[in-house]
Amino acid sequence: TMLDVEQGRQAAAEVFHAQGEMVGEVTATNALLQSRLTASTGLVEGDVPGAPGVARFEFSTDADFASARTTPWLRAGAERDFIVRTPIGELAPATRYFYRLRFGVDESALKIGPTRSFITLPGPGHEGTVRFVVANCMNYSFFHRGANNDGEGGYDGPDRHLGYPAAEVIERLGPDFFIGAGDNVYYDHPAKGRAETRIELRRKWHEQFVQPRLVSLFAEVPTYWLKDDHDYRINDSDPTGDYAPSHELGIATFREQLPVVDPSDSGATTYRTIRAGRHLQLWFVEGRDHRSPNKSPDGPGKTIWGGEQKAWLQRTLLASDATFKILVSPTPMVGPDDASKNDNHTNPGGFRHEGDAFFAWLRANRVPTNRFFILCGDRHWKYHSVHPAGYAEFSCGALNRENSRRGRSPGDPKSTDPKATVVQPYTDPDPLGGFLEVELAAGEGESPALTFRLRDDAGRQLYQSVVP
Predict the structure, then answer these.
(1) What SS3 state is found at 412?
(2) Alpha carbon distance 260, 255 (integer Å)
(3) Which residues of the chain have pLDDT under 70?
(4) Strand-by-strand arrangement of the 31-36 sheet
(5) Cα(272)–Cα(274) distance, rounded to whole angstroms?
(6) Model confidence pLDDT, tens digit, residues 244-267
(7) pLDDT digit string (tens) for 386-425?
(8) CB-CB contact of 253 with 245 (8 Å)
(9) CA–CA dist 331, 374 (Å, integer)
(10) DSSP label of 49
(11) Interatomic CA distance for residues 408 and 423, integer angstroms
(12) Which end of the chain is less enclosed by CB atoms within 10 A, N or C?
């Protein structure tokens, strides 16, 4: 009846999408679109409550949505935390697409969200420029309340409610895509009352991604996400241990909250590779799902990657004809790191055997040191380090300064490299937030070049390395 329609319209007015929209896993021809229907426009008692309803995406190469295509209607329900996500395909390479969300409690009373956009990756033969940013360790608790959760040491600017200033800097730089390299939220910070249940884990994602600067950034910059320990279980966690959150819940929540896998494909892996034009290919590895227990004796049978992922990585690296090959790892492979740790490839007693074996494999297969690079997260300081085998690693550091620290240098007796076998052209001199920017420049008829820039959270360039 007319009364039912009017009531529906009134109810639709109470459905929002406070966390905005996000695009993930963009290729030259495909992408994943995501939003979440909410019952508020922001935080309510520390959370963003979800709202049931329906939604679909409209997308077009025209900002006025001429000849727009639409996705099927999607239902937002509690079982998926009111998240709607769907793949789109048959896109044109190296093309800007505009999209928006049409949503409401039902199809009779709908709202239209603001216009968002993203650029597809260049096709395999493309010679142009590709520029992207790598960031991680976004510690919401440290930023808003300080390391002791008492307000001391937190960000104290009048714009704190907007979220991390570095996100605004990245948006101004206008990269083609953003890589979240892990620790995208912190389940175990603050330590007292850490997140353990599904509701508590979800809350961490809601409070993080409702911050206006992140909403604005991801409205224009597509994403690729990896997880590490803090957005999986707790610090340095592995699949073992009878505590909450469980290994299974940690995996499921990551897959639920971020546009990494198609929700209809339960078998999709979170390790994958993307091609960005003729000269660049990237590999994203999974560091938590398949690992051996951290405390197991190190040796040939101990692994972070697992046999299947390792075989995939080696097979696809050798098959690629890209000029530059980049491995993005949630944890370091070169370091140095703290000697006290045991959860990554740099750590003696951790997973050093697998790390050393991988570098030996690169050398044995004659992978050039000026064509293969590692980008890592996890460490809270930025650096450029070179392994004794000649392969370079760049750490993106912690995005927010409140979560940064001084690092370990080669020769430090408390480091994983007390004999100074690693060469380190740069490390942060003081605790600094920030991120890594990578640019591939390859004009028609020109030789390609790869540039790595380490920037602080105000965007100031701290260091640059150019590989012709």
Answers:
(1) coil
(2) 7
(3) 1-13, 444
(4) 83-88, 31-36, 21-24, 223-225, 177-180, 130-135, 434-441, 449-456, 461-467
(5) 7
(6) 999 999 999 999 999 999 999 999
(7) 999 999 999 999 999 999 999 999 999 999 999 999 999 9
(8) yes
(9) 10
(10) -
(11) 12
(12) N
Task: Report the C-alpha gap between 209 and 47 in whole angstroms.
Answer: 11
- Tell me the C-alpha distance between 167 and 135, whole Å: 10
Q: Give the integer Cα–Cα distance in Å for 100 and 112.
A: 7
Task: Name the token pair of 56.
Answer: 């679909």
Query: Measured between alpha carbons, how far is 167 from 64 in angstroms, rounded to an integer?
Result: 27
What is the three-state SS of 194-256?
Answer: CCCCHHHHHHHHHHHHCCHHHHHHHCCCCEEECCCCCCCCCCCCCCCCCCCCCHHHHHHHHHH
Strand partners, 372: 325
Other residues' Cβ atoms within 10 Å of the Cβ of residue 301: 11
Burial of 76 (0-12, 13-18, 19+ CB in 10 A): buried
Which structure tokens are listed for 43?
A: 């935080």
Distance of CA 88 to the CA centre of its chain: 20
Backbone angles phi, psi at 332, to 5 degrees: -75, 155
CA 123 to CA 164: how far, in whole Å? 33
Q: Which segments within 248-400 are labelled E, that is strand?
A: 272-275, 280-284, 324-329, 372-376, 382-386, 392-396
Indicate whether this model's pTM tops 0.90: yes
For the CA atoms of 163, 165, 166, 171, the dihedral, rounded to the nearest 10 degrees, stands at: 90
Copy the structure tokens of residue 141. Answer: 């608790």
Locus of tokens 């021809």: 29
Q: 118, 81 in Cβ contact below 8 A? A: no
Place of tokens 């979170």: 270
